[in-house]
Specification:
heterodimer, A: mainly alpha, MetI-like fold, two-stranded antiparallel ribbon, 12 helices, 1% strand, globular, B: mainly alpha, 14 helices
Chain lengths: 276, 276
């Protein structure tokens, strides 16, 4: 019963995987015939300022978004865990952002964050803050995209952490209460260490998506202004499907995949260490 | 005294209620803004301060349905998301059963790796391959490529449900002379109905929302709603009402479908990481 699925995976994923590895060793513009290049594409990549810029954007966006989502998700999970006020309704509402198509999320925020007519700048104006350029500003585009992605995915992190909170052993908390642990000390010394495996699970799932960030950027800025929001994935996509340099794009994709797998392996190791 | 005691009890409750309200506003307000903008005429949609009480119009929806073959694109999306869901579930569910029954690890890890790699890694060789045989734009290409997303998802969401079944159950059925397929169809599947529902829902949502593959591999005849919406934005459409009406319609199917299966959703989404 496993065979049909494995056959399909071998054909659709296994073969393309090795094909990409092979293509990354060729000079190959789509339409011309490939020429073996050994590690030529990878050497080119090390010299390519746009590659390093893409790596910088990818890592900045990754770290900023991950931090924001874990913090906001933890806050939401603790709130949902402790309160009885409208908990069911809030849980239901929090599911909507992350099941929406990223394309729709991008369209929505494009309109909200429009520098001249968007409601975001009007709201800022109400409290006396000067209007921002948001996605149109080279300095602010990465934080803005991180904010959009946090709006979409912090609720997802929250639901994972909430599930984790609900399985924690109550006797530990009773003992801590008897010892007088409360508030910040309780959170830092008891809740967070116990919740660490769930936090790392959430971080792993988000890392995979964040390191290969594509959809929302491609819809809102296509990597701009300039190349201020051009992640590695966007850059590789342009090299492959706009400039049709299949060989170089393959080398970029292989590099990005190695980064994703590296991050996941580190996080899985961390998770083992944090399991109690 | 009594009043103070009531106040001491009520204060944390009120504090939580205030936080719940703020959280609900932060996560729901952008959606509300999008949906209402779809019902506003061109003057109202850019009016600041925003008009809370406005005269709703269906003009934008009429524009969306008449200026582009919206229903055609919607049908394409249904065929591609539905087809790849069917294929993914048909292949993934028996595979998950075999993996769970034989307590194998490597096929599941292989599928997890398939879920971790950036989509463009497969897309490059697919693009080269399907261009070579002139199949870019055809529905079967879009269905099998999206099934590369849905199959691992179906496998991972079904695993915990199969793992939870008592082994005696299937062993008994085997002793009674059932073949593997019969065991799965007659004994096991009726018991994992909720799992199957989550699996189908998640596959459909992921395939419906997936942007990258259709962006490259669809043509004017097989274009999905997501790609059509992206083109709508790319053309620099300044008709915000129509833009938001389209966004609302596109987001509706995944949101509605997940509300139906909400109870099991998070368990399904996190299955991969928790077990991996």
């Amino acid at each position: 019963m496993l065979l049909p699925a494995l056959g399909f995976i071998a054909l659709m994923i296994g073969f393309p995987l090795f094909d990409t590895l092979w293509l990354s060793l060729q000079h190959f513009s789509f339409g011309s015939s490939p020429r073996f290049a050994a590690l030529g594409n990878y050497a080119q990549l090390l010299q390519d300022t746009k590659f390093w810029q893409g790596l910088r954007v990818t890592l900045a966006l990754y770290l900023l978004s991950l931090a924001l989502q874990l913090l906001a998700g933890l806050y939401l999970a603790l709130l949902l865990h402790r309160t009885r006020v409208l908990r069911g309704l809030l849980r239901t509402l929090l599911v909507s952002p992350f099941v929406m198509p990223p394309v729709v999320v991008g369209m929505m925020w494009l309109v909200i964050l429009d520098p001249s007519l968007g409601i975001a700048n009007w709201l800022l104006g109400l409290v006396g803050i000067a209007p921002a350029l948001w996605l149109a500003s080279p300095d602010w585009v990465v934080p803005t995209v991180a904010m959009i992605d946090t709006w979409q995915w912090a609720p997802f992190v929250a639901l994972i952490l909430l599930a984790g909170l609900q399985t924690l052993p109550p006797d530990v908390f009773e003992a801590a209460a008897i010892d007088g642990a409360r508030g910040w000390a309780l959170l830092r010394r008891v809740t967070l260490p116990l919740l660490a495996p769930s936090i790392i699970t959430a971080a792993t799932l988000r890392s995979v998506d964040l390191l290969r960030f594509f959809d929302i950027i491609y819809i809102t800025t296509q990597g701009g202004p300039g190349d201020a929001s051009q992640t590695l994935n966007i850059y590789a996509f342009k090299q492959g499907f706009v400039f049709l340099d299949i060989g170089y794009a393959s080398a970029l994709m292989v590099t990005l995949t190695a980064i994703v797998i590296g991050a996941v392996l580190v996080l899985m190791r961390l998770r083992q260490a944090a399991t109690w | 005294m009594v009043a103070r005691r009531i106040a001491a009890r009520a204060a944390p409750l009120l504090l939580d209620a205030a936080q719940v309200a703020i959280v609900a506003i932060v996560f729901v307000a952008p959606l509300l803004w999008m949906v209402t903008a779809g019902f506003k005429d061109p003057d109202t949609v850019t009016a600041l301060p925003p008009q809370v009480l406005f005269h709703p119009t269906l003009q934008n929806f009429r524009t969306v349905l008449t200026t582009m073959p919206f229903l055609r694109f919607a049908l394409n999306s249904v065929v591609i998301a539905g087809g790849s869901t069917a294929l993914g579930v048909l292949l993934g569910v028996p595979a998950a059963f075999a993996v769970s029954w034989n307590r194998m690890h490597w096929p599941a890890l292989l599928m997890l790796a398939a879920r971790m790699a950036p989509g463009a890694l497969f897309l490059l060789p697919w693009f080269v391959m399907f261009s070579a045989i002139g199949a870019v734009g055809s529905f079967w290409v879009l269905i099998v490529t999206h099934a590369a997303i849905t199959l691992p998802l179906a496998l991972w969401t079904m695993l915990p449900f199969f793992d939870a079944l008592p082994r005696e159950l299937t062993e008994a059925a085997r002793i009674d002379g059932c073949s593997d397929i019969e065991v799965l169809l007659r004994v096991v599947l009726p018991l994992v109905g909720p799992g199957l529902a989550v699996s189908v829902i998640l596959c459909f949502v992921f395939a419906w929302n997936y942007f990258l593959f259709s962006l490259v591999l669809s043509d004017i005849h097989s274009r999905t709603l997501i790609v059509a919406a992206f083109n709508f934005v790319g053309e620099g459409v300044t008709d915000w009402g129509a833009l938001m009406a389209a966004a609302t319609l596109i987001a509706l199917p995944p949101v509605v479908v997940t509300f139906l299966g909400q109870r099991w959703l998070v368990a399904g989404l996190t299955a991969g990481a928790v077990k991996g």
